[in-house]
Amino acid sequence: MGERAIEIRDATPADLPRIFEIYNEEIEHGIATFEVEPKRVERDRSWLTDRGELYPVVVAVKDGRVAGWGSLSQWSPRGAYRRTAEVSEYVDPAHRGEGIGRAILRVLIERARDRDIAVLLARVAQPNPASEAMHESLGFASFGTQRRCGEKFGRVLDVKLMDLHLDC
Fold first, then answer.
1. pLDDT, tens digit, for every residue of 60-92?
2. Is the pTM of this model over 0.90?
3. Which top CATH class is 3-118?
4. One-character DSSP codes across 14-31
């Protein structure tokens, strides 16, 4: 299956249980996020509803079910960083390798352009060669590594920093 079989649309509050199910799998069993407290719809609804127009959340729907999601997030509350956002993408483990993450990231890049965001940043916990390759295939480049900055499941982890400049 290619990206053509995947519908990408804006997330709605009705998508939160599935978004959090996918995210909580990574919180509880993976290193792609350094969050350690699982999300709960009743407590964390504002994560989606209070983002504003600048920082969308999108979902990838395959066969009528949310198979992944992604977001643009504020990099820093300091005004000079208004032109910069962080990208995040998460895919249900059952659907990895099907082009869903790439489809989500493509849409997020276009959404950033539409919002006059000039720089996208990605933080990729190490090791994650699939995520690095996906970001690189869409123009992201590595600009450094935060060494030993996180600890999860008893492992001290590095984070590769990647960026994509949309204004050059």
1. 999 999 999 999 999 999 999 999 999 999 999
2. yes
3. alpha beta
4. GGHHHHHHHHHHHHHH-S
